[in-house]
Q: What sequence folds into this?
């Protein structure tokens, strides 16, 4: 590469990556990926990350065979920080010399052209072969990586990388990495449906899922019940009011006129038959048995300072299709609490996972906070800045 342009024989994806890195001030001869997480900070961040739940899948499908083949498997977060590097022991020792180890940031802006960093920057799978790496110290290696997405929100969670000799940059390896990512995303979806995500353990306590859903899903001892929007509104309001609500109270929160209170009572009668053994008192209407909602779990994580888990469990606004005033109040309150915690955190990974979703896509404040948190350290900096420019045009900012 000379005068900021690559030789004609260099693949376009590599040439463009080199140009981004040179603009960021990368020194190909002397730079090393910086270590951003170490010791307890690394352990805490890794344990709270959603990909920690699916590491058994990655180890079973990829790490075991990679170790036998003399290869390394790395998993990063959305900001490019390596969380796990596993595989051949001798190769891990060699890789540590170039800071390819847990805690190091391998974003393009800090580690030059490399498969995990470039995959995050482009949001698709890439292979980087030997001398295509910008850092001289990395040119003896080849790597294949693909981004991992949250299957419900589409947010980038991190990248999966396979690193080793020349054979790693082959079509078969690319297929293997993509297949493993697909399996990981499927496992994440199953965990989400089963209520395991964000460290939630199965419980005999009935639960109600209403975040990002047009109708609630009630889990109880007899199985699952999908609720209509109206029954979801009623049960959510009762779950948020442990002292109970009268028919008048419910009518106000549902925006029913006084003359239609008979409708509220009729709906409560129908709801009672759908509760799967969950007991409901009248006068006032009150849940006798405990009912845990995913909205309250998000709030519990926020109270305890577990921001990453709160973001992971937040699948979207509470019953977004509801126009009931009481539901709108609960929805706005939770969204505002989570958003305020995020904007004040400076946590680039959590901000990206919130912003890169349907409910965060047009949130200018969240994207601006992500841009400030990322600075030059993120492989996604250009994408974030481009999205902000798009929002400027669409919102007339």
A:
């Amino acid at each position: 590469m000379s005068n900021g342009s690559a030789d004609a024989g260099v693949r376009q994806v590599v040439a463009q990556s080199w140009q981004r890195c040179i603009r960021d001030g990368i020194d190909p001869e002397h730079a090393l990926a910086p270590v951003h997480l170490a010791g307890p900070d690394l352990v805490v961040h890794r344990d709270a990350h959603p990909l920690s739940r699916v590491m058994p899948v990655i180890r079973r499908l990829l790490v075991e065979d990679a170790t036998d083949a003399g290869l390394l498997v790395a998993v990063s977060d959305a900001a490019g920080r390596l969380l796990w590097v596993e595989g051949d022991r001798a190769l891990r020792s060699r890789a540590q010399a170039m800071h390819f180890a847990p805690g190091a940031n391998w974003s393009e802006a800090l580690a030059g052209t490399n498969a995990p960093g470039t995959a995050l920057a482009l949001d698709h799978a890439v292979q980087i072969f030997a001398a295509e790496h910008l850092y001289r110290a990395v040119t003896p290696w080849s790597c294949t990586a693909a981004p991992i997405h949250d299957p419900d929100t589409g947010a980038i969670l991190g990248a999966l990388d396979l690193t080793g000799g020349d054979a790693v940059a082959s079509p078969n390896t690319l297929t293997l990495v993509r297949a493993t990512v697909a399996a990981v995303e499927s496992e994440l979806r199953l965990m989400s449906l089963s209520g395991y995500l964000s460290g939630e353990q199965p419980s005999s306590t009935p639960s109600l899922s209403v975040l990002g859903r047009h109708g609630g899903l009630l889990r109880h001892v007899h199985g699952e019940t999908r609720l209509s929007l109206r029954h979801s509104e009623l049960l959510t309001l009762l779950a948020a009011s442990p002292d109970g609500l009268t028919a008048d109270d419910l009518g106000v929160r549902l925006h029913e006129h006084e003359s239609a209170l008979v409708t509220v009572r009729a709906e409560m009668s129908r709801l009672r038959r759908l509760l799967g053994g969950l007991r409901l008192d009248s006068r006032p209407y009150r849940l006798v048995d405990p009912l845990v909602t995913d909205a309250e779990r998000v709030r519990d994580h926020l109270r305890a300072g577990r921001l990453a888990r709160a973001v992971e469990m937040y699948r979207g606004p509470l019953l977004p299709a509801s126009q009931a005033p009481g539901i709108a109040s609960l929805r706005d309150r939770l969204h505002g609490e989570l958003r305020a915690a995020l904007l004040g955190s400076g946590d680039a990974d959590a901000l990206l996972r919130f912003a890169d979703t349907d409910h965060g896509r047009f949130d200018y404040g969240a994207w601006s906070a992500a841009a400030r948190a990322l600075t030059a350290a993120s492989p996604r900096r250009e994408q974030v800045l481009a999205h902000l420019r798009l929002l400027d045009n669409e919102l007339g900012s």
Observations:
- The two ends are 39 Å apart (CA to CA).
- Residues 207-343 form one domain.
